[in-house]
Sequence to fold (322 residues):
Amino acid sequence: MRLIGLAVVLAVVLGLVPLVALAQPAPRIYRIGVLGPTPVVPSNDEAFKQGLAQFGYTEGQNLVIEYRHAEGSRLSEYAGDLVRLNVDVIYARGPAAVRAARDATHTVPVVAIDLESDPVAVGFARGLAQPGGNITGVFLDLPELGGKQLQLLKEIIPRLSQVVVLGDPILNASQFRATESAAHALAIDIQRREVKSANDFSKALDAARESRARAVLILSSPLVYSQRAKIGALVIEKRIPAVSMFTEFVEAGGLMAYGPSIREASQRCGAYVGRILQGAKPGEMPIERPQTFELAVNLKTAKALGLTIPPSVLGRADQVIE
Fold:
């Protein structure tokens, strides 16, 4: 009788196993919105996903990524679309995307990569250590970067006395001021040339040649990053030594670049998103600065321009294109 009773109990328990399994909730699928003015560069997108993977989130398994890119008012429309899709986090690439996300929501967490804005001055956060709202991420408010780029140009062209600086009059206002201050200390005359659209670069570079400027410094912006291949081709065509913040500009033909690693910053943003998905609050996550700065030099371009890169510069270069 005891054996029969045991058999009945086992039968009942085994019969309930499928029901228990069916009662388990399905793994949650998280949804991230990626918002920016241009398509994501594949290498930066891969770095972003690597940051997510550090916290156990993989696209196609427990994660869906919604990509949206546009300029102007459509960027705001897409920010609103992402909020209506009920995304868990918005990853905003560039100042315009951060503004659009901020205007679209005060509740959905926003992780930003913005290499032009002071997040406190423009109202994205109340402080760097404690942002206080729904926005955090990686910001680079380092207008002094132009001074470092001028110093590097001076090492390559010792008699450099005149440089044309290209930038957006509003977005790059603080960079313009800091670069002019650094130029004064280096006895370099600065000429401003405004660039607001992709069509402005050719005209600005023609003006630089006509003024007999010895070099061009291109301030950072999402427009410059998205147009780096076009700008690289133009500076080669017009035979003008040019420096930018983005190493990808050198890969496209520019002479030199000094600035933060976009890939590393993208990975840090992915890690921030992963932490938020695990429960961290963006208002309590300190805003970070890029941690790695890279110097890149294109020796092929230098040779075409009749320039010799001194060992003092080559010895510090993280990337040399031959």
Observations:
- The CA atoms of residues 33 and 82 lie 6 Å apart.
